[in-house]
Amino acid sequence: MVVVIGKMASNVEAPESWYLALLGFAEHFRTSSPPKIRLCVHCLQAVFQFKPPQRVEARTHLQLGSVLYHHTKNSELARSHLEKAWFISQQIPQFEDVKFEAASLLSELYCQQNLVDSAKPLLRKAIQISQQTPYWHCRLLFQLAQLHTLEKDLVSACDLLGVGAEYARVVGSEYTRALFLLSKGMLLLMERKLGEVHPLLTLCGTIVENWQGNPIQKESLRVFFLVLQVTHYLDAGQVKSVKPCLKQLQQCIQTISTLHDDEILPSNPADLFHWLPKEHMCVLVYLVTVMHSMQAGYLEKAQKYTDKALMQLEKLKMLDSSPILSTFQVILLEHIIMCRLVTGHKATALQEISQVCQLCQQSPRLFTNHAAQLHTLLGLYCISVNCMDNAEAQFTAALRLTTHQELWAFIVTNLASVYIREGNRHQELYSLLERINPDHNFPVSSHCLRAAAFYIRGLLSFFQGRYNEAKRFLRETLKMSNAEDLNRLTACSLVLLGHIFYVLGNHRESNNMVVPAMQLASKIPDMSVQLWSSALLKDLNKALGNTIDAHEAAQMHQNFSQQLLQDHIAACSLPEHNLISWTDGPPPGQFQAQNGPTSSLASLL
């Protein structure tokens, strides 16, 4: 290569020729299989020996910085080249692409090096001087908004997205205006500013429907809009109300999958944005469908869509290292783990919790965002294997790590159920119940969590023998869960009401509760409610003199007990069972094998 370059120099060819030749060599080495990055870098560095003009010098610094940033670990050298590209390009008129790409890439590198305080002023300066370049102005606004979002400064992020929406309107890009507004709507949902979300989503809906442009871009805006609507309903625990929106979303993604990507570039440079690739949108729609199925208690459906989504994710991750794919994978696993615990597959749930730990070990940011959920899942697993002390420790760790109001209320509800089962934690229990009082100032707007809080009150009243009070709370749960098709809460409330009527000697009324509870639990399927219902049906039929039905119920109870017992032993024997002792710091990488189950089996029998 040195010989070739020397030949060029001796022939005193035009600068364009030697520059194009070196650039051609560099690109050849970069795209070789496998890439020859060292040789690519040598070719680009050779450009500087020819004392190139400023434009070539700045562009080469950008190219070197980009190659080093994307293909090597030499971030200091990458940073040096990008800083030079940014500095030189600012002195050159009409050199926007190099100037703003250098700024964008350099701020990304600063963030990677935890130099956020260097990234922010750089992006602000680039935004300030890019107002005549619509594409870059919008892209840099999105980038700075994303940086503020990662820092949990959602107010500043929302302000920037508002600025972007107004700028896009002025430059005649309704498409990118909608993207800015939908992104702002997403952050307002995260902040629980529901009063601002509703008018904004209404405006977005109008813009999306009226925009006439590339069909894939239009449908992708509709997917974004509908995903926000669906997650808003699910956050509010409104499983029945969400169905029309969810159906529209599923139809929308089917439409997108039939459309071909047009290579025609938009005439307005401000329109050169995509929300998500088509394949990512498909996974996202699977994900919200799983969330809905889990909340509604259609657990076999949740399993089916999880399998489809995880298969799609595995294919995508072979070709795409985008961090959002790992986030999708973790959220899918979090939901399917909860389903497994309900359906009596604790050993599988535990292995999937371990899988989430491994994914979080690969990404500190992923762990920061999901540590509370991970401890919550371990707490739920501990309840399922009757390790109540460990469950308390896990939920306490989760409460320490979360600022998310709905997750906090979910954890507190489950921790209250642990204290009720332990029976000797009255002070702590009453303190918790005061904070999730469904009759007075309930802390979140979730219909589902408020219904669950009534159920917890009913459970406590039942254990304390205050049966009339328990019935009031449980009827409230039933009313709320029936209104929004919350099948699991309905099944749990029915079986507990059946138990209360059985204790009170009202066998007919008890039967009227337990039979539908059993039918619903079989449909979900909820193994614990099936076990509980079959035990009650056995005793009820015996009391009513229905010998054959009593025998059949006893057989069912025996079968459920055996299944749960075998699963319990399998789960507690796994080395991953030791995760129940982890309550602080990053998740452990290795697990010691168990000698056998360490928790009591009494609660299962």
Automatic annotation (TrEMBL):
Pfam family, one: Cohesin_load
InterPro entries in the cross-refs: MAU2 (IPR019440), TPR-like_helical_dom_sf (IPR011990), TPR_rpt (IPR019734)
UniProt keyword terms in alphabetical order: Cell cycle, Cell division, Chromosome partition, Mitosis, Nucleus, Repeat, TPR repeat
Main location as per UniProt: nucleus
SUPFAM superfamilies found in the cross-reference section: TPR-like
Family: Belongs to the SCC4/mau-2 family.
Taxonomic lineage from the root: Eukaryota, Metazoa, Chordata, Craniata, Vertebrata
Source species, domain of life: Eukaryota
GO terms under cellular component: chromatin; nucleoplasm
Biased composition (Polar residues): 591-605
Region (Disordered): 584-605
GO process terms (BP): cell division; chromosome segregation; mitotic sister chromatid cohesion
Gene: LOC106573592
Annotated compartments: Nucleus, Nucleoplasm
PANTHER family given in the database record: MAU2 CHROMATID COHESION FACTOR HOMOLOG
Native species: Salmo salar (Atlantic salmon)
Record-given protein name: MAU2 chromatid cohesion factor homolog
Transmembrane segments: none
